[in-house]
Backbone:
C-alpha cells in the first residue's frame, strides 16, 4: 500500500463564495462550490446543482 499524500498539498483553498456557516455552526457549501468541484457527491447537499434525489438515491435532472 502506498502512503502517497502529495495530493493534499495540491488541493485548492476555499474561497469566500464557496461556503457559509449555518446558525448551528455547520459549514454549508454553495452551488458555486459544487459547480467548481464538477460532480455530485450524492450526499444530499442543500445547494446541489446536479439534482440528487436522496430518497431515490440517484441524480435526476434539476428543473431550471
Residues:
Amino acid at each position: 500500500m502506498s502512503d502517497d499524500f502529495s495530493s493534499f498539498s495540491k488541493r485548492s483553498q476555499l474561497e469566500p463564495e464557496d461556503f457559509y456557516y449555518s446558525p448551528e455552526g455547520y459549514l454549508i457549501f454553495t452551488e458555486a462550490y459544487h459547480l467548481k468541484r464538477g460532480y455530485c457527491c450524492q450526499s444530499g447537499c442543500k445547494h446541489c446543482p446536479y439534482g440528487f434525489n436522496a430518497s431515490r438515491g440517484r441524480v435526476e435532472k434539476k428543473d431550471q
In short: The chain has a mean pLDDT of 81. The CA atoms of residues 49 and 64 lie 10 Å apart. The beta strands are 19-21, 27-29, 52-53, 58-59.
